[in-house]
Amino acid sequence: MEGKVIFISGSTDGIGKQAALELAKMGAHVIVHGRNEEKTLAVVEFIKTESKSEDIDYVLADMSSFEQIRAMSDVLHERYERIDVLVNNAGAQIHKFQYSEDGYELNFAVNHLAYFLTTSLLLDMVSKSDYKRIVVVSSGMHFRLEEIDWDVFKGKKEYDLYNYYAHSKLANIMFSYKLSRLLQNKEITVNCLHPGLINTNLNPQRAPHIVARALPVESGIISTMRLVTDPALDGVTGKYFTSDGTETESSPISYNIEDQEKLWTITETCAGMNVLKFIESESL
Q1: Total domain count, the chain
Q2: Is 159 marked active-site?
Q3: pTM for the predicted model, two decimal places
Q4: The domain that contains 9 carries what CATH number?
Q5: pLDDT digits (tens, 9 = 90+) for 118-165
Q6: Of the residues 131, 159, 177, 255, which is catalytic?
């Protein structure tokens, strides 16, 4: 991984921070992302000290804000010619129904719309790499859904955290599969993963019995690290991986192409991005 430029969203805590540290130790140029500058700078210094590498950069953005994501993209385009690996890792579990500043339910905004917009804006940078990997951190929580309730994506359903969160994580997977098809002739791979039940700050209000079962962050980066680093995955795309890094099947509903297309259309409308037109242009 020596010299590879790797951007990891949500990397000031949890598995994002741990993955950033391990990749820095491997010689990668890691771009840390956070919301709070003071905390982000502290993490950058921590990674520099622990990895004995000065090749660490950072960017700031609240992933619930389209405006801030677009500003972050502008900064990355100013600083870098390419991104070798884009890791969509930022996530949240929102205990109380809230809208983002753009008017979308907050789980949907942070966990899905931010992945979509970030990836869309940085696709041109990934395309300039010889490595060309996009990694999407989802969750096994999507298995709890037997069907899609489209009203959840619209924020029009009685609020239940885990139902809304599961839908946002299902959206991650469906997005990955659709995007992998769109990019199959561009040599950019797109894969998604379940990190496992990990002891992070994703949900500070977790019940004690759940916290007791949670694994340390070192266990939560196994899949991410494999998808970022494993040469055996060159050319592998549109797949789902378990917490131990094994390729497996996601839930049956995640493979419904008609639903993938419907979600894609909804997401493009929300984010204001015609990604297909961009992919088919000579810009990529």
Answers
A1: 1
A2: yes
A3: 0.92
A4: 3.40.50.720
A5: 999 999 999 999 999 999 999 999 999 999 999 999 888 899 989 999
A6: 159
